[in-house]
Design goal:
The protein is an alpha/beta fold. It is built from seven helices and nine strands; from the N terminus they run αααββαβαβαββαβββ. The radius of gyration is 17 Å and the shape is globular. The protein binds S-adenosyl-L-homocysteine.
């Protein structure tokens, strides 16, 4: 087989990386309680095997986190779906379509690819340059034209683009950084793991005109939100 042919097979996926494997993953997530059909549709669509090293691609559609280099991990599909659903779905099952959304810790770009089609504009910050260097072209190739990436410390948010209707943070800290709360629009929602280093609770904060409502969604284990950039 020519390398162009093998490249094509890798892109479209066969066997353990096929559309069938993605369908099975979406079914599993639905059984685990993901209710948003829009989110499940994105799980069926996004080629997760392209966001990880080729040597690991046979595990791409198992519901697990996997290493992506630089000591980081691609998030577990269930957690990606849960966070996306928490950000976008109201209690009555209706989906919001937020205008501007900020993603902190875009890592491999898989969560970015799930979220981008469901929002108008997505602003993604990652502190490790090597991860940005592979996720940025991949997202472009997959047709996510509404994403802007930035290399930096997401704890500071993205002041020039604030306020945001939604903020999704994919790394854990003892509390929600003040700058992020300040950059949340009235009526906007922030989803983030909060707690100790290896164990956190997924927290959803909804901002209203006269304060905020906080809800704990599920126990999770995320890598820590770190200062500065590499
Ligand atoms: N959703 C991503 C998760 C990656 S893990 C995926 O599925 O691939 C969390 C990511 O947050 C890592 O890439 C890490 O480098 C990044 N990160 C940690 N602290 C950060 C910060 N202060 N600003 C931006 N990114 C940060």
């Amino acid at each position: 087989m020519s390398s162009a042919q093998s490249g094509l097979r890798r892109r479209s996926g066969i066997g353990l990386t096929s559309a069938r494997a993605r369908d099975r993953l979406a079914e599993q997530l639905e059984q685990r309680g993901i209710r948003s059909q829009e989110v499940l549709e994105q799980i069926r669509r996004a080629p997760r095997h392209l966001f990880i090293d080729e040597a690991l691609e046979r595990y791409a559609y198992q519901d697990n986190a996997l290493p992506i280099g630089a000591g980081q991990t691609i998030s577990q599909p269930y957690v990606v779906a849960l966070m996306t659903q928490a950000l976008l779905m109201d209690d009555d099952g209706r989906m919001r379509r937020p205008g501007k959304v900020l993603e902190v810790g875009s890592g491999s770009g898989y969560q970015t690819a799930i979220l981008a089609p469901l929002v108008r504009q997505l602003f993604a910050i990652e502190r490790i340059r090597s991860l940005l260097d592979s996720s940025r072209p991949l997202l472009r190739e997959l047709g996510c034209g509404n994403v802007r990436f930035r290399h930096g410390d997401g704890k500071e948010g993205w002041p020039g683009q604030a306020p945001f209707d939604g903020i999704l943070v994919a790394a854990g800290a003892a509390s929600v950084p003040e700058a992020l709360l300040e950059q949340l629009a009235p009526g906007g929602r922030l989803v983030m793991p909060v707690g100790g280093r290896d164990r956190q609770k997924l927290l959803c904060v909804e901002r209203s005109e006269d304060g905020e409502v906080r809800e704990n969604l599920a126990p999770v284990a995320f890598v820590p939100l770190l200062p500065g950039q590499e």
